[in-house]
Amino acid sequence: MWNTWLTRTLNIDLPIIGAPMGGRAGGELAGQVTAAGGLGMIGAARYATPEWIDEQLRVIRAAAGGDAPLAFGLQTWSLADSPELLDSVLAAQPKLVSLSFGDPAPFVQRVKDAGAVVISQINSVDDLREVEAAGVDAVVAQGGEAGGHTGRIATLPLLQEVLRATDLPVLAAGGIGSGAGLAAVLAAGAQGALVGTALLASPETIGPEYAIPALLKARSVDTVYTDVFDKARHQPWPTRWFGRALTNDFTERWHDGDGVDASSSTEEAVSAAYDGAMPELGVVYAGQAAGLVDEVRPAREVVASIAADAEARLRAVAEVLG
Ligand SMILES: Cc1cc2nc3c(=O)[nH]c(=O)nc-3n(C[C@H](O)[C@H](O)[C@H](O)COP(=O)(O)O)c2cc1C
Predict the structure, then answer these.
(1) Which of 82, 97, 149, 204 has most ligand 1 atoms within 8 Å of CB, for mutation?
(2) Has UniProt tagged this entry with the keyword Oxidoreductase (predicted)?
(3) Ligand 1 closest atom vs CA 140
(4) Domain ranges of the chain
(5) What does the alpha-carbon distance between residue 177 and residue 183 come to, in Å, rounded to a whole number?
(6) Which CATH architecture has domain 5-202+296-320?
(7) Residue 260, pLDDT above cutoff 90
């Protein structure tokens, strides 16, 4: 019944992608999003290994069936140093691959040759031009309210600008945590949405035990756009991408709006103070949609209710015009 570029191209029921989330979205979460009628992506962060990918494949096949369509999100800037990650992703014959954060040109043709649809999350019109030139099939306008690494322009202005600037299919990401959000971006012209934060209180997520309680407690004001956790964890992200995370004692103490001072002494102090085992110190990446998440719910239910509510809202909107 849903009919967008995304549902037609991927042959899925709902215009919803479970966002790739390194460290949180493995095979179980992705499998449940797929079982609900969307397509769940496995987040293969820089530190993921081919063995971890193989394990997630076993898990997703158990969750969503042996012929479940597969989708992976890779961090483009780190791929040159870990070519084995792309090799194992492509060996799984995925239906969809996201190459985000960096110029995807060196990798797009290989992904296409493997039979996958290629998308890139972008944070500006300059990014759009780069990924268009690289030959991606569709772009994701990822707003700065998104959880995890992202840009600085908010979803709505970025989405409008990107829709105006390209003929490629456009998806939206960042702050979409309910049917109202999905209906809004579809009405604006997006072909579907990536949902991340709204899935992070699902029992199928991976990650530290404190992550779900911290998210349930957090409201939309309780996130910060920071590079402090990259410095603390020695993740050499290009400096133009900070990550959006829940505030805690660690960000109170160490976050500086301009970014952590690049001097090695500061970085050493920040990493010495970090302790990922402690709720008040460890990172929980999440976006401003944290304010919409107040109960633990299986991903299947989250996806189904976002879709049903978006459908009702879009039908109601049509009536606005009489
Ligand atoms: C915990 C977390 C980890 C993320 N890791 C990645 C990643 O590894 N690769 C990627 O392309 N995007 C990553 N993202 C961004 C998501 O793909 C997506 O853009 C974002 O979750 C959408 O915004 P929302 O969180 O408001 O729904 C991550 C987001 C979160 C919350």
Answers:
(1) 149
(2) yes
(3) 19
(4) 5-202+296-320
(5) 11
(6) Alpha-Beta Barrel (3.20)
(7) no
Q: How many CA atoms lie within 13 A of 264 on its CB side?
A: 0
Mean per-residue pLDDT over the chain, rounded: 96
Compute the chain's Rg from CA coordinates.
18
Structure tokens at 19: 């966002």
The amino acid sitting at 31 is G
- DSSP characters over 2-39: --SHHHHHHT-SSSEEE---TTT--HHHHHHHHHTTSE
Output the residue whose Cα is nearest ligand 1's atom 30: 148
Q: Give me the residue label for tokens 């060996």.
A: 91
Query: What does the pLDDT average to over 210-234?
Result: 97
Handedness of CA 72, 113, 87, 106 (dihedral sign): negative
Run of H or E residues at 265? helix 264-273
